[in-house]
Amino acid sequence: MPTQDVTAYLSELLESVRDLDRGAPHDLPVHAEADPDLLAVAIVDVDGQVWSAGDTEQLFPIQSMSKPAVYGQAIEDVGLAEVLRHVDVEPSGDAFNRISLDEESNRPDNPMINAGALVAHSLVRGPHADDRFERIRQLHSRMAGRDLAMDQDCYAQEMERGDRNLGIAHMVRALSVLPDDPHDVVDGYSRQCALEVSTVELARIGATLATGGLVPGSDERALHLKATQQVLSVMLTCGMYDSAGDWVSTVGIPAKSGISGGIFGAVPGRCGIATYSPRLDGHGTSVRGELAFRQLSADLGLHVLRPRQPQG
Ligand code: GLU
């Protein structure tokens, strides 16, 4: 499709979901106070070309959408086998902040729920908590194409309400392996979640995963191919909170949502996609974002498991 056609298509797509006002923003003040009508969509292809519509300059905390890249960084730092020793790759069907570990192995089910994400964060090479966060910030900055900063209010509010994540971190430390102090891990993880991105930057992070780890349109490598493949696999099976199965069958794009109202996906070899709309459904996924993704996937034939007739 020519560029103007794609842009017009994206504007129409937003109009088709704009009036849907089901759901509510997350109650963390920084999200609850955001304008619930904000709406944006962006596509970045593997060459770095950008198409977007709506409030694409609006910044918002990346929240759980930081989990995929941090998992990738942990794999690069300590190796996949070591990461798997600490965190499994099984969809849990549980809410993202469930305080639970696998009964037999004592491992978190996957790195997209908080227990697994806290462990993945702690496996990123430091040596100290500050160095670990700085490496995570730099990784996201490379993928997003801008030097990202943290939303201080979001970080402070997350820490104020950090009891649940602290509880999870202490449980992991008690029953399994958490290579660092639970307070430091929750502090670093909360900073990771508070990194601010725009919808276009989020789509660019998706596009970097879609290329196998190369920053779109450049030779700069953010993650290695093998780590990226592992990240995409886990996004496909576990990325959408406790509605991952529904997402795979209706959208079919490896993706991750966050409580700020963002969703980003990666179509391998093709593009990164992101949406932003703060009202969430009962699973914590953006209502209008999910609908836009469904529509996009159907209209542009992006379902990664789309059967193809053998040629000839
Ligand atoms: N910082 C949030 C938490 O850990 C992230 C949740 C999310 O976006 O899913 O509770």
From TrEMBL:
Enzyme nomenclature, EC number:
3.5.1.2
Give a GO biological-process term.
L-glutamine catabolic process
The cross-references to SUPFAM superfamilies, in alphabetical order and at most eight, read: beta-lactamase/transpeptidase-like
Q: Which UniProt keywords apply?
A: Acetylation, Hydrolase
Q: Which InterPro entries match?
A: Beta-lactam/transpept-like, Glutaminase
Q: What class of enzyme is it?
A: hydrolase
Superkingdom is Bacteria
Where in this chain does the entry annotate a coiled-coil region?
A: none
Annotated GO molecular function terms are: glutaminase activity
Q: Cross-referenced Pfam families, in alphabetical order?
A: Glutaminase
Chain residues that bind substrate:
64, 114, 158, 165, 189, 241
Catalysed reactions listed for this entry: L-glutamine + H2O = L-glutamate + NH4(+)
Under the subunit heading, UniProt states: Homotetramer.
Q: What family is this? A: Belongs to the glutaminase family.
Q: Which protein is depicted?
A: Glutaminase
Q: Which organism is it from?
A: Ornithinimicrobium avium
